[in-house]
Amino acid sequence: MMINLNSCSLGMNGMEWVINMAIYYYPFSKKQEKEEIERTEKPQTIEPMQDKSLGQEEKQIQTGYIKVTVKNLEGTPLPKTVIKLSRDGQEVKKITTDQTGEYKFEDLEPGRYIIKVWKQGYDVQEKTVELTNKPLSINILLKKGAKIK
Questions:
Q1: pTM of full prediction above 0.70
Q2: Euclidean distance between CA atoms 81 and 95, whole angstroms
Q3: Which of 100, 91, 101 shows the shortest CA–CA distance to 122?
Q4: What is the assigned CATH class of domain 64-142?
Q5: For each successive 10 residues of the chain (149 residues), what is the average pLDDT?
Q6: Residues of the chain with CATH 2.60.40.10
Q7: Sequence-separated (6 or more) residues with CB below 8 Å from residue 107
Q8: Hey, what's the torsion of the CAs at 85, 91, 97, 103, to 10 degrees?
Q9: What span, in angstroms and rounded, lies between the C-alpha atoms of 107 and 115?
């Protein structure tokens, strides 16, 4: 196979020189030649570059967390208190507090949440909060009251 890359003529003091450049290509095998042809004939997909300087930014969902601390009116932490977190009428998570009366709901998308807290021998408390992508700490005080069945 011969590929003619360039032909040109040069003039030098009234004499004209013709230069032909050619490359001779001898493949190692027919299989290798076929693979090379297939490789060079495949269409290539080039993805457009995004210029972030023009205001195109990657969209990231930022999350926050809600840390709930439950205590009685005297300020004593209430372990094993049930906390239910809901959003748009759907339960997100229902847990029981640790020995310090705390629990942290993590990886929450920004929005409006309802926190419902109850423990045997105490009144039920419900609080609506608005979460941004920043941490939110909520203190809930439970008053002794009706028994939960």
A1: no
A2: 8
A3: 101
A4: mainly beta
A5: 48 51 54 69 56 50 89 95 95 96 94 96 95 91 76
A6: 64-142
A7: 63, 65
A8: -50
A9: 16
